[in-house]
Amino acid sequence: MMDASEDLSRGLALLQDVRDNEFSFDDPAFYWFCRFVRHDASVAEYQISEAETSVPWRFLLERPSDYRGRLVVVSGRLLRRSPFEVINRGDVGMLFQCELVESGTRAICTVVVTENPQAIPIRSWVQTKGYFIKVRAFRTDVGNAGAGPLLVARRLEPARGSASGLSDTSRVSGSGTVWLVGGTAALAAVWLVLRRGLRSSQTQEPGSPIGAKCSTGTSADFDWLTHAEDVDDSQDR
After folding, report:
1. What is the mean pLDDT of residues 91-109?
2. Domain span at residue 175?
3. How many domains does one find in the chain?
């Protein structure tokens, strides 16, 4: 078993040979960190404290050398998870490849964890604390190329304050949408009252063109204002 005093120098030395923006992450450094994380006895190292915040993905993409080999916290919406077993790499064992997406970006963050994340529902907003390895290139099912961070971590966990399944950005956006919808609905109600008052003050001959064109407004006319558009962070794969 590895303990907190284990020197990371071997893993950091292996990271010197890692190349960013490659499709494969079949690197000795990757497997070394998978073994290290699995057997590291320092459980507290992978716990996310209240004071820690997620590192923006673009920082990892723009300055990978600054973060390589460091424990970082990332968050995103869980897109998919796939188990795979490494049988020719010593005691690496069963791993779980999880892919996260983030609103406003087409990047995909790949997090390989050693503990089974099956209990976490797909599309949940999650966070993790793991070792940043590299910027990984990928290609979607429809042939589009992209890139995203690659991390090795112990586990995924629900993001703090994510009971609704939305990110902080999504909640802010949702609040703005509710405010906009509420304000628009109020204006629409005022307009409806004024329109009815105007119609009642007019004297129309039966069957006149204006009378034929006007319809009786109801609250159902504004039902569409009360439905905020769903936030969908899923990526085409």
Report:
1. 91
2. 169-226
3. 2
**Residue 231 in domain:** no
Inform me whether the pLDDT recorded for 178 exceeds 70.
Answer: no
pLDDT tens, 61-84? 999 999 999 999 999 999 999 999
For residue 171 the two structure tokens come to 């909640």
Question: Nearest-CA neighbor of 45 among 5, 17, 99?
Answer: 5
74 pairs with which residues across the strands? 128
Average pLDDT over residues 121-134: 97
Provide the H-helix boundaries in the chain: 9-15, 28-39, 57-62, 64-67, 168-201, 209-213
105 and 18 housed in the same domain = yes
| Lookup: tokens for 208 | 């006149």
CA distance 27 to 15: 9
Across 129-150, average pLDDT: 91
**Cβ-contact 6, 36 below 8 angstroms:** yes
- Is residue 207 one of the residues assigned to a domain? yes
